[in-house]
Amino acid sequence: MAARSAATAVAYPHRTRRRLETRDRVFDAALREFRRAGVSAAQIEDIVRAADVARGTFYLHFPTKDHVLLELLRRRQTVIAARLRAARSLSPRTFLRRVVDLMLEDTLGHGRGLWHELVAVVARHAAEMRREPSALVEAMTGFFAAAQQRRDVRQDVTPSELTAVFLPGVYGLLQMKLDEPTAQLRAALHRVVDIFVRGIAP
Predict the structure, then answer these.
(1) Rounded Cα–Cα distance for residues 21 and 8 (Å)
(2) Alpha-carbon distance 189 to 184, whole Å?
(3) Is the pLDDT of residue 2 over 50?
(4) For the chain, how far is it from start to end, CA to CA, in angstroms?
(5) What is the pLDDT of residue 55?
(6) Tally of CB atoms within 10 A around 196
(7) Number of CB atoms found within 10 A of residue 201's CB
(8) Which of 44, 39, 64, 63 is nearest to 54 (CA)?
(9) HEC states along the chain?
């Protein structure tokens, strides 16, 4: 979180900066405890003790443990979206393979057990997530819009609809096959991309 803290120090006044730094401390402590004990067994008391905050501070920033995982998803999607920013001119197949490769890399970086929990949380909070902006959804919608302008993608489906079909399918496959060897999982994701690209061809 060092990069975020440095940016925060410049961008926000002192009180807001302290609140964001406390949120980061609680967030980091919660993730460490989730990895150690599992999400369901993780105790709020242990999280706030590690973060050196009062119990009420946890709930001020995260109404439930689920919301820590939703914050993790938002942050990771923002990182992936930033890495996709320069890829908008790629072909649909190349771009979408890059998307799934980045998603797989990110998933494995956080541990398979925590990812299973994360996908379950996404399913439980689907309506809430639809109301909030997503950097990854915005990046993919922007790509599909640009691809339609280039006539690389069929015109009878909106960029939002294309994104809404593709992303849940990738998350579902990750959840279903996450315990398989990485090479097999990557190959399965690439097959999904190939099938999807054939379906959206003009």
Answers:
(1) 8
(2) 9
(3) no
(4) 43
(5) 95
(6) 18
(7) 11
(8) 44
(9) CHHHHHHHHHHCCHHHHHHHHHHHHHHHHHHHHHHHHCCCCCCHHHHHHHHCCCHHHHHHHCCCHHHHHHHHHHHHHHHHHHHHHHHCCCCHHHHHHHHHHHHHHHHHHCCHHHHHHHHHHHHHCHHHHHCCCCHHHHHHHHHHHHHHHCCCCCCCCCHHHHHHHHHHHHHHHHHHHCCCCHHHHHHHHHHHHHHHHHHHCC
Q: Which amino acid is at 107?
A: T
Q: In Å, what is the CA distance from 146 to each residue of 10, 57, 192?
A: 34, 43, 21
Count other C-beta atoms under 10 Å from residue 51's C-beta: 22
pLDDT recorded at residue 124: 84
The whole-angstrom separation of Cα 163 and Cα 141 is 6
Residue 77 · residue 135 · CB < 8 Å = yes
Instruction: Pick the closest to residue 182 from 98, 113, 114, 107 (CA basis).
Output: 107
* Global pTM exceeds 0.85: no
Q: Assess contact for 52 and 75: CB atoms under 8 A.
A: no
Query: What whole-number distance in Å separates Cα of residue 60 and Cα of residue 57?
Result: 5
Q: What is the mean pLDDT of the chain?
A: 89
Number of other residues whose CB lies within 10 A of the CB of residue 141 = 18
Closest CA to 136 of 148, 122, 149, 150: 122
Please name the residue that has the structure tokens 């399913």: 123
